[in-house]
Design a protein that fits this description.
There is one protein chain. It contains three helices and no strands. By secondary structure, it is mostly helical. The protein has a domain of 50 residues. The longest helix is centred in the middle third of the chain and has 62 residues. It is elongated, with a radius of gyration of 55 Å. The relative contact order is 0.02.
């Protein structure tokens, strides 16, 4: 063991001397990169004479991959379609709410307009323009009898001047 340690010590001193020598001779020299002493050679290989043999399991694998892809596609579509339908329904619901609000606003405007058209002061003005007056008491005919307290009773109608 002592010889091994001495050999390592001697070798490390030698390498230190070599390294220090490089530094003294050229202060700007860089150390070598890892793998500088590895050389790669390329050899041209001609595979044109080789013929690939058909794999009988390749078509089975292909069809199983196609089936798995179709199954994944169906799963994806079954997840996406309800979401898209939900979003479209939301848009339709918002459009219906907007239309409802618009119709309510129009109805409110028409109610105000109707109230203005049917106001007693306006009707009196129209009556004065057309020379209309209130009817006299002799011109008023009451169609119901004098004391009819039961409105839903079954009675035979009486015709004046008839049987």
């Amino acid at each position: 063991m002592a010889t091994t340690l001495a050999a390592i010590w001697k070798r490390s001193n030698t390498m230190a001397a070599v390294g220090s020598g490089i530094r003294e001779s050229d202060p700007y020299a860089l150390r070598g990169l890892p793998g500088d002493n590895v050389f790669f050679y390329s050899k041209k290989i001609d595979n044109s004479r080789l013929i690939r043999q058909a794999n009988p399991r390749a078509s089975e694998e292909c069809w199983s991959d196609v089936g798995a892809g179709a199954l994944l596609l169906m799963l994806g579509v079954s997840v996406i379609v309800p979401h898209v339908a939900l979003v479209r329904t939301g848009y339709k619901l918002e459009a219906a709410k907007l239309e409802r609000q618009t119709l309510l606003d129009q109805r409110r405007e028409l109610d105000v307009r109707e109230a203005g058209l049917l106001s007693p002061s306006r009707l009196n003005e129209i009556a004065k323009e057309h020379n209309l007056t209130s009817p006299m008491s002799s011109q008023v005919f009451h169609l119901d009898g004098p004391n009819q307290s039961n409105l839903a009773s079954i009675q035979t109608p009486t015709v004046p001047g008839g049987r």
